Amino acid sequence: MVHQNGQGGLPNLLDIAIQQLNEAADRLGLDQSMRRILSKPQRILTVSVPVRMDDGSVEVFDGYRVHHNLVRGPAKGGIRYHPAVTMDEIVALSMGMTWKCAVVNIPYGGAKGGVVVDPTKLSIGELERLTRRFTTEISIIIGPDKDIPAPDVNTNAQIMAWIMDTYSMHRGYSIPEIVTGKPIEMGGSRGRVDAASRGCVYTIIELAKCIGMNLEGAAVAVQGYGNVGSNAAVILEDLGCKVIAVCDVYGGLYNEHGLDTKAIKQTVAEKGSVIHYKGPAAPITSSELLELPVDILVPAALENQITKENAPRIRAKIIAEGANGPTTLEADRILNENGIIIIPDILANAGGVTVSYFEWVQGIQELSWTEEQVVKEMKRRMVTSFHEVYSRAQAEKVDMRSAAHLIAVERVAQTIKLRGIYP
Description:
alpha/beta; Rossmann fold; 7-stranded mixed β-sheet; 5-stranded mixed β-sheet; 14 helices; 12 strands; globular
């Protein structure tokens, strides 16, 4: 089954997702009926989103919300605003969310949403109107007990606040638990902003222990300096790592002696890109960054960044996937053959959805946890999940991505068997 082509001839994310599912299903001995259930999304909602622009004209944007599988609990997944959004991408990412929730053993199914739009070309008013109309269109399938959206690429706490307000206005009372990743003032969780980054770093720490790597002075390169990449860089530097290269969509910085990650993060907050940083650094491209001889590489940008073309030149010892789907299947095989250990996305960046789960629980219980509680419980779950995956990889003599999919697919399939097929 071949779907729409990926961007620039790159592999289609949905083809990759189904291939990964089938490889896990082969090893688990799942029958064709179970494969049919797991390979299809439960529902796909396609919506048109008319927005009155500041000049009085009306633009119509395409939007999607997809539920992949809900047997383990309500649907959970982010909403992204990006001009390259496609339905296949959203379906694939919703499937990835099913596995991500299962691998860290939280009671959610997978969902994803997206709008085909370049938000940088919208005013703040246009962005709000887009968000409120999109929320209204998907309100028929979202809800605090059935589908809980969250931030993703180009969306943030403010956009979650608009979603929460719009949904609440339709119901006539405040429902903070309809979204996660919202401002703390509205029931958001402490520790949510850097949760994905912190979770990623916990998996790096545990892997370093397993392979005997000393993180003090370890060279790190981070691709993508948004929320996940910037916070991961800061946390790794605080641990004693030497972050020698970072980049974003506009360009990159390199300094073999190490960069000041906090100062760069501040520069991005003030001026919008790492390239405006005035400290000691040479320019570097995103592709050059990926091929640096580092101990740890954190791809935290978009999908399909490591391909069969550049994989043979990648020299990192560990790759921790802060982004969703940054490595193609062909690249995965090349990296594994070259002895590079990959902490897969469905484990490495699961800290975000784990703390989103805590935020949802706090909302339902009308309680507020301290940041200490959030971080402690997230660390416990991430460390436990890491060792489950690492042990499965060792026992089955497979890479960590295969092991993570084995655990996740097995958990979901077992739940389907226990629940049975209605009617």
